[in-house]
Amino acid sequence: MTIDLKTVKHISKLARISLDEKKAEKLATDMNSIFEFIEKLNELNTDNVEPLTSIAETKLRFRDDKITSENIREKILKNSPEKNDDFFVVPKVVE
Amino acid sequence: MSEITSLTLYELIKNIKEKKISSNEAAKSFVDRAEKSKKINAYVTENFENCLKLSKEFDDKPNFDLKLPGIPIAVKDLFCTNEVRTTAGSNILNNFVPTYESTVTQNIWNEGGILLGKLNCDEFAMGSSNETSFFGNVQNPIAEDLVPGGSSGGSSAALVANLTPVTIGTDTGGSIRQPASFTGTVGLKPTYGSCSRYGIVAFASSLDQAGPMSKDVKDSSILLEVISSFDKKDSTSIDFKRNNYSSELTRNIKGLKIGIPKEYRVDGMPDEIEKLWKKGIEYAKDCGAEIMDISLPHTSYALPTYYIVAPAEASSNLARYDGVKYGLRSSGKNLIDMYEKTRSEGFGEEVKRRVMIGTYVLSSGYYDAYYLKAQKVRQLIKQDFDQAYNKVDAILTPSTPSSAFKIGEKSNDPVSMYLNDIFTVPVNLAGLPGISIPAGVDKNNYPLGLQIIGKPFDEQTVLNIAYSMEEKINYKNNITDWWMK
Questions:
Q1: Catalytic machinery residues of B
Q2: Looking at the predicted complex, does its ipTM rise above 0.85?
Q3: What is the pTM of this model?
Q4: Cis ω on the peptide bond leading into residue B151 (within 30° of 0)?
Q5: Cα B370 to chain center, whole Å?
Q6: d(CA B227, CA A31)
Q7: B-chain residues within 8 Å CB-CB of A91?
Q8: Which domains, and CATH codes, for chain B?
Q9: Which CATH class is domain A5-43?
């Protein structure tokens, strides 16, 4: 299997990472060598194997439905690149 | 008495408790040495002034009942520290100042530890040489232009350069054990669920674990005892009975069964690694352990599995860096353009590569072929260990397939870089505890490590075997302080 330039560009859209032509070509080369290495898994028959999704094998714990945090609005907004009063500011999304 | 900075953690605690050294004297010594060691590039953010101040406060009102009384400690810059910048080695978090503290670091401060500063690491812990950090590569104090390993490369370098008495790293595929091996130090990755992941910048959530890095095994047992705790803030934290690892540490390992997996004899493994492993087997026998051959048949599938599972989880975890709530923001002509430019400028090459791989294996039409397949093979890898542990108490392997390499040597070939983790990755996939201890040197006098892998939650046996073998191996680093000249 090979990953072509078109696929790399599609994936970069999904991943929300802009790429110039040169970087996309380099990534295509790297991804192909990595996937060549990953293809080894196809040697194994895994038809009757249960996927391992969590190593911890614990059930999710429930907590009481009570508010535990104090008013941390300021802390949450502290690191935002742009804010306006109590809101995060983003580029305009509706006309 | 030898210099303060070259003491082990255990010795430093003893001296502080006996009032032979004050916390402030210790802090000053480490700060002074760090000032002369900038060339190592171990620190991303220094907390020196605050550390000196807090150590004085400790001396004014000492509490010697604490496990780390007034001990200055530097930590990997992947742990969020309240009001101290936390970058994860990335441009995208260059200006991030957390408003909360990770549980693991909080446990250290609760026991009297004082933050010296934040140590360099590969960007988002993705790397095996500390070369992917936005803040530049780290020098291995063992020799000039040598990588310190990664991703916890600033931690291993700071430790062996005597810039911190002990440190903590994180290990997703070998990021504690491989740098420990490359610097002749001890690094322990605990069982998945032992140390809380709360407040650790996430890479691959089903694999990430924090753990101690130290000059000797006893120090790792002291630090593990402090950092390992059940934490409600981490949904995968496990509530099990934790040992008093340091007081239960013993060199009596007589009759323990140690397995030697034949599949770890990989093609092209250098003779010196093979010899080191044989020597390790002899040491283990000398300590009274019984050696048994075992098989872990799916070993060779571990790395390909890891390079699906880890990037997939990373691509999902790193989706949060969108230039809105925190971190870098680049300007764009609309919201989507802003996201794309922010992530393009904020992430380095290796991080982009892994996010792309992860996005691809999770994308429509490929999920079953890659991600689901990898999860199934991960099950087989775990079952290999389960079966082996019906026969043996622990497993002995080399830590890495080679010693530390030169800066720049592997940075253009991702697959050859990934092969560094061939012996450590299976342990993360199976969620097991593993330790690397220094065991010898190669022809260049660069350190080589051996890895001891244990049963889940059996850190004590892992530590005990390491403690016994350490005495027989009697490894000593010869640090010349070349970077100060």
A1: 76, 151, 175
A2: yes
A3: 0.97
A4: yes
A5: 28
A6: 38
A7: 332-335, 337-338
A8: 4-259+390-484 (3.90.1300.10)
A9: mainly alpha
